[in-house]
Design goal:
The complex is a heterotetramer of chains A (157), B (186), C (659) and D (322).
Chain A (H helix, E strand, L loop, with lengths): L12 E6 L3 H10 L8 E6 L7 H9 L4 E6 L10 H18 L7 E5 L5 H18 L11 H8 L4
Parallel strand pairs in A: 1-2, 1-3, 3-4
Helix pairs in contact in A: 1-4
Chain B lengths: L6 H14 L12 H5 L10 H10 L2 H6 L2 H4 L5 H5 L6 H14 L6 H17 L4 H12 L8 H7 L13 H14 L4
Chain D lengths: L3 E3 L10 H14 L3 E3 L8 H7 L1 H18 L4 E4 L2 H16 L1 H11 L9 E3 H6 L1 H10 L8 E4 L9 H4 L9 H6 L5 E2 L13 H4 L1 H17 L4 E4 L2 H17 L8 E3 H8 L4 H4 L9 H25 L15
Parallel strand pairs in D: 1-2, 1-3, 3-4, 5-6, 5-7, 7-8
Helix pairs in contact in D: 1-13, 2-3, 3-4, 3-5, 4-5, 11-12
The chains are: A alpha/beta (157), B mainly alpha (186), C alpha/beta (659), D alpha/beta (322).
Chain lengths: 157, 186, 659, 322
Amino acid sequence: MSIKKDDNWEPKILAFCCNWCTYTGADLAGLNRMKYPENVRTIRVPCSSRVNPQFILRAFQKGADGVLVCGCHPGDCHYATGNYFTRRRFMLMQRLLEYNGIDPKRFQAKWISGSEAAKFRDTVTEVSAQIKALGPNTKFVAPHYDNALQAKEGGAE
Amino acid sequence: MEKILNREEGKLLADRIAKEANVALDECYQCGKCSAGCPMANSYDLMPRQIVHLMHLGDMDTVMKSKTIWLCASCHTCVERCPHDIDIPTLIEKSRMEAQKRGISAQRNVRLFNDIFMETVRGFGKSQEVILEGAYNVTSGRLLQDMANVPQMLKKDIVRPELNSVQDKEDIRRIMKECEEGGAVK
Amino acid sequence: MARIGVFICHCGTNIAATVDVEKVAEAAKSMPGVAYARDYKYMCSEPGQAMIKEAIEEHNLDRIVIGSCSPRMHETTFRKMLKGTKINPYLLEIANLREQCAWVHTDKAKATEKAINLVQMAVAKVANNKPLTTSTIPITKRALVIGGGIAGIQAALDIADAGYDVTIVEKEPTIGGHMVMLDKTFPTMDCSACISTPKMVDAGAHPNITLKTSCEVEKVDGYIGNFEVTIKEKAKYVNHDLCTGCGLCQTKCPTKVTSEFNQGMSKRSAIYIPFAQAVPSKPVIDPQACLKLTKDKCGICEKICPIGAINYQDEVKYTTEQYGAIVVATGYELVDWKQMYPEYGGGKYEDVITGLQFERLVNASGPTEGHIVRPSDGKEPKDVVIVKCVGSRDPKKGKTYCSRACCMYSAKHAHQILDKIPNSRVYIFYMDVRTPGKGYEEFYDNTRKDGAQYIRGRVSKIYKEGSKLIVKGEDSLIGRPVTVEADMVILATAMEAAPGVEEVVSKLGISMDKDRWVQEAHPKLRPVETQSAGIFLCGTCQGPKDIPDTVSQAGAAASKVIGILNHDEMETSPMISHVDQTKCAGCGYCVECCPYKAISLVEVPGRDGNRKVTKTVAQVNEGLCQGCGCCTATCRTGCIDLRGFTNDQILKEVDALCL
Amino acid sequence: MKQYAYYPGCSMDSTAVTYKKSFEYIASKIGLVMKEIPDWNCCGSTAAHTKNEKMAYALSARNIAIAEEELPGLDIVTPCASCYSRLKYASYVGKNDEAKRQEIEEVLRRSFKAEAEVLNFLDLFEDPEIQEAIKEKLHRNLEGLNVACYYGCLMSRPREITGETDPENPMKMDEIIELTGAKAIAWDYKTECCGASHQVDAPEHARELIDRIFRNAQANGADVIVTACPLCNMNLDMREAEINKNFGRKYNIPVFQFTELIAIAMGASAADCGIHQHFFPAFDVINEVVKTGAKKAAAEAKAEAKKDPLKDGPIVVGKAGR
């Protein structure tokens, strides 16, 4: 199956942001009127360690094109040690996904503090561009989403 | 004295040397513990600490023209005690090689001694202390240096007039030649 | 079916300029479960809130979504608003249409599309929200202070003065810590003992303060407002209830060992009061040194004690007490420079001493009655070298940090030597002189005027030739090596967190930084809090500092404690983890990863077919849980979930996002 | 007893005559077999690595390569601190930098595995088996002799090359020398530099280094200094008289190789270890100690014999355990 790239195609990117650092950083980016692509949606979680691997699989299953997990910098976790768990879980998860044929660029973890609005903007802009270049995600997508996917791709050949 | 290197060239060279020596020049906070413990420091024109600072600034010109790089005895006391583990002996050694390449030597005799030493090795495969001392005295103009000891040496059978050498002299000459042609280890 | 109300805020033009708010509201109407949707200029305003309340009544809404600014801004506002309605305040979700949509995009069509999606996610989530109630916990109005140095004493006095009971736990036989060892304090040159011993006496005599010396914290359970602390009291072998502190025993004791208080420069007996002004001023027996306890010989103290207070059979005792808040003030110790610096003799030379040893040497109640003499031969030194940054600012051999108080105490030592020994010379080897404090720079100035020679450079080697110590350094300001022949060398050794801080920290469930200092919750804005609610810190357990800083931090910690103890009960956040114990397999992974030790394994009755069995399951302590949710992602059976951010809620958000 | 590949180094055949003699004496007494590396060459010493890094590695590596080929499985031992340092550097680079190892191999046209361990004489004499063998052969007690063990730079620094755990105060030689009954004193110039070849090419700067070493040894009560390196030994021994003259000192501290003292304790004569070949007179001090020790041992043996009437036979002089 080859993928036809539609120039108007926009990826769906999901960003899990911890409430204390990255979500605050994202708010600050807004406050500073920084601009970044519309295709990133954040889900607020108390801590990046709240992100269950199940959520990521579910996102890819339902047709998300990229998932970003963001938290405080290691050592700065609001809950002391949460992001260390995130970091370890992330590495395992990324290897699992890679093993299943998902490009590691589709699943990234970034540490962005509450003051790093510019880093938030740069990160989502960069990730968005990377995923746009990769094209739509086709792995894991549950069968009944096929139609939606095909529509998105402009039809599979 | 004429500038051999300007700041930009110097900075490039210093950074390359630092990288090869695995040294982060910016870690040095100029505490001076290196200079304080250096056995040769009384004779230096630049303290080891200043060598690091000049390299950080990119002033390799001053570094290569200094006496210090020739007088360092490579005893490694500085790096043993350095709070930031900065490998000054290697920085100095590599600076000395660069100076040598450009024909600079603020301590002519040190260079001379090294040259003669290597030539005896090239000639015989082993160093010849008698020839070394003799040739050095003649070329350095310090004819009488250590000569007071010679009669005693001969009398006490400490040195003998005959020479030691390796059998396969060609092998040594070839290795030395190839190394000289090939330049430094990458 | 849920009846969700969606309210889209214009925020003036903040949102409305980039997002077609009418369109969003319109789109919301067709989202599953939405019974009502509308937009409004300012949702957070009085009329906006009234409008929402009306809509709730009118349309019989049971949960609401507000599309507005960040939830970090107005979530609490809208929750408060819901308190007056039939809807539980936690049946609310906020779609962030301002900070994370309108303000960061320019393309109105795309921004509107995103806004609709964000509302969709919030709607999907809120449909799965459960009503939550905050609970209250009673507060035990007592505080525990761990450590009886000047930090602990100050914090205890402040709390006690506010009318609350305080216990000070101190592992040594007396309170006082390091401050009472010091001679003078910079920059004012007050006598350290003269200003600290009255505080010790106050603490000992305060009706609200209980001193527990020779004690350590054994175990800490519970949470803010309700800590249950087991305190271990080491055997003192002297009944302090009977003892009058006459001191006869220590004059007769035949065993002499090195005195800790005098930093190894004098002897004390095996039964001893650490120093004259100790509080409590009653002796204990050192079980390692006592002949009776080690070899069953001697027994003199028992024979001569006029009231029979000696008890060789004394044992370790444990008591358990309740506290509402805890202050950690475990203090510092000097680094073991002898291990770090063989080039300074590694302890071979008696006349190379630490700053703290010098304090004892120059102190009128010290081993030499205040005469500065060389420990080796008792002669008065004429040339003294002070070496700064020994063990600090040295990533290879010691600590990376600056030990902060050394510059000033070194200046003080120089001043004292020049003052007390006529025609003496003092050389101070330094890397930088750091004097950030009131009157500090002036003090440094005066020390130089007194004649102290400051030489910029780190010392490379100290060795002995004859009776002189040879100090090799570099005067880096002229770039020449210098050699000083000294009679005595004082090393300004770095502070490090006291030994045993690891155990205290792990028992309390708080953390340390890479240098073993106790970690504060935020370096700027929560400097005396730890990340565990109800546990505070002050003094040098948090980092190197001098006395003024220590005392102010102690006051700050005390005020935080008083702030808690002032309440009879406290509200807890309902957004915490809970375990479905029917599904829990008792694997304990959640216990491992919880940063607050809030989860424990308990035995509960269960069933295996028809058989009644007990099974091991996890249980969350609601007072300790801070709601991070780390446990939820580690649970194999999915039985542990975070209220307010449940798996269901987040999965529904993910689904809505991917539509 | 374990066998070793032996790299004597250039000085061992000329200036280090006392080192050579005394070591050969010990080896013959305890049955230590040293297999000289065939056709070994100069390690390049200080001069090579100031000129050309690759040449410095290659010259040293040639010896390791030959040893690995001709004397497989044997550790390489060298008496000279400078040779030790250069061989050890080559071995270290060969072990840790595959690219450089290949490059060296290429220029050598020999296989250079860098597997053989490089040891100095202190490592060798640290071997418990050798120490046991020495202890068995001890015939004299050098009690009363205060020895300053001088290690110099390259035996202990840089620590990642030498593996020395305490470069400020190494103790290997102290422990070895105390086998003889002599006292290894604590002093502070154990690892200070002797100036190495700068004593020849920059004497005006380097002489004071030697002066400082003698001064500290004297201040700490040393009767003699012992070294474990031909160059350190020569720098100290040959220049002591000159220092006395030019610096106005009165040092009377003969300089020995540590092997000389061991050989003497094992019964070697002055000629066996070349005591007369020192520059600075060394015979008297050692003779004094040996004589005192012998008298004392004889007296002790007599007392012992008196105590134990069953003991007969000739009085054994020596084997005076510490």
